């Protein structure tokens, strides 16, 4: 204090500049350092996150490049291959890339199970067959994990009806009105409805022609007309539905399987019509183009014979009926082995050609525009291949065919609506009759 009782200004100034307790300083420094460390850690984490994001973007761009180049398999849900570990597949029904983990498919990038409409596998091998009592038997193969199925029924032109909560893989419908009917089925797995099965088309009354329903005119079956099980050979039919590729077994064909517009007898009763849509499912990830095509069987199993020994013959009459304008090419008749085609009878914008062992320079067999009929004979005798068209020998050669050969015939389009500028509802079709297969 100074005289008069006032504060000692000098003491106050001295106290103002007296250093604080060193322990307080250490604490504040440590706090500041800790805060700085946390900021640094946060920045490092941010850098790592940015690096991870950039890596993820790079990976997605790489996958997109592979997909664009056709090096990643793609297609509908029903065509997914086995989910081998690391196997990639772009599911067109889901619009998502998937990756296999060895036992199941997961979404690429999230690791979660696939989700969304159509995420479960569509039912396969759906058939709708009219019975002698005019009931319609619908049946299909089971879907693993499905709790129930939903059947859709179209009575042209009255719209869609059907049945819910079907817990079996078959059901009988008993329509009272004669005419045209169309059916398909979906599966429910974990509450999610699958993509559609292939569609089954039939007509009442029993034995009527699907092209003229209600007439009662016997139409027979494609298997009868092509003499399956007799001179016309034994076959499995692959159908490239928009929902995916489906195989129709030899037994189903022998039981009269027929389905417009894919495989049926023409209105005049003289031909079997083969048709495939441009957005049809493919047989494998290695195949770009869809098909509705017969594959040779023998004694209930896939045919496999040696092309260098014995006699092997397939002959038939055919006519190209429709093809889209962009890349108007199709295959109507093949010899195949375990790896690839060894002979293709190709229709290319009206010119019939034979391509042997994948030759890029096929041999011309004649000109046959849309609707023009032609007869083909393919014959192997002790390794020598002879091809005749309308009775005239066009090719005689020894192609060096070995074991594992088999015949194929039908509509194998060489275009689609992905690579070509063809409409989504476009299709390719041909008619075939007088099929003969012989082996000795």
Task: Please characterize this protein's 3D structure.
- By secondary structure, the chain is mostly beta strands.
- It folds into two domains: 92 residues, Sandwich (Immunoglobulin-like); 220 residues, Jelly Rolls (Sandwich).
- Helix content is 15%, strand content 39%.
- It is built from four helices and 28 strands.
- Strands 13, 14, 17, 18, 20, 21, 22, 23 and 27 form a nine-stranded antiparallel sheet that branches.
- A hairpin with a 4-residue loop joins strand 7 and strand 8.
- The longest helix is centred in the N-terminal third of the chain and has 47 residues.
- The radius of gyration is 34 Å and the shape is globular.
- About 4% of the residues have low confidence.
